[in-house]
Amino acid sequence: YRCPLVLSPRGMLSPNALKYSSIQKKLFWAAFRIQGLEKNLILHATSKGEVEDARRFGLLCPIALIPNGIDVPRHPKVPQVRTTKTVLFLGRLHPVKVLDNLILAWAKAAKDQSDWVLQIVGPSERSYDKKLRKLCRNPSGPRVQFVSELLGDEKIKAIQRAEMLVLPSHSENFGMVIAESLAQGTPVIASHGTPWKSVEDEGCGWWCGNSVDELVAALSDAMSYSIDERARMGVRGHQWMKDEFDWQVIASKMNEL
User: Are 186 and 160 in contact (CB under 8 A)?
Assistant: First the structure.
């Protein structure tokens, strides 16, 4: 019908995603181009990495860089003094998330931190949880809790209760849980596989590699912060989300597009 099309690839053009069905994807885009349909296409990317992936793949169409929107509460959470402090992972349990490295790093970083616990929340894929639980049965994997998937209000409550959220990953086109955590006022540790380098620039988190040593360094530094320091990081993250990721801001940009 020759209608203009706005397409959101949602990570399907990342190098990691292209390991799967790569030939089919390339054939699809070749047919798309041959039929002259690309001239009616605008790509909606949610991060600079997604823009780079599209260009690397060979797409020449215009690209609009507009991040995902987020529901931002009026005020960030007020940190509570707790006898047990939590580092939270929230997402699907999949090898791309590098959770085995996180558990090994946690064993080192939290060795002398008896009042901290690592909570891993989410559904497992490819029986990845079996490997992770086996690591935790080893004495070198202390204080790790596994919780089934949390949705809606229960997920928000888990984010609010946590002292910080951690997201190791080889590849994330956006990493929605990072935005959700910052909106609530919870500082984050985001890995280089996510497009969240700016958490350090904004003073609301850490951005590190996925190796065990790099995760140990980030976790150790994060746990050394006082409750007041984490509160100030939370306020900065909340304000950042309000200024740039609130739905009013994002809807205006999409409407303009």
Answer: yes
In a structure prediction context, what are the per-residue pLDDT tens digits for the chain, which is 257 residues long? Answer: 778 889 898 888 888 777 777 778 778 777 777 666 677 889 999 998 899 988 988 888 899 999 999 999 999 999 889 999 999 999 999 999 999 999 999 999 998 888 999 999 999 887 888 889 888 876 555 689 999 899 999 999 999 999 999 999 998 889 999 999 999 999 999 999 999 999 999 999 999 999 999 999 999 999 999 999 999 999 999 999 999 999 999 999 999 99
User: DSSP string covering 153-181, please?
Assistant: HHHHHHHHH-SEEEE--S--SS-HHHHHH
What is the rounded CA–CA span in Å between residue 173 and residue 53?
10
Ramachandran sector of residue 242 (left: φ over 0; alpha: ψ -120 to 50; beta: rest): alpha
pTM of the model: 0.85
Q: Which residues contact 26 (CB under 8 A, 6 or more apart)?
A: none
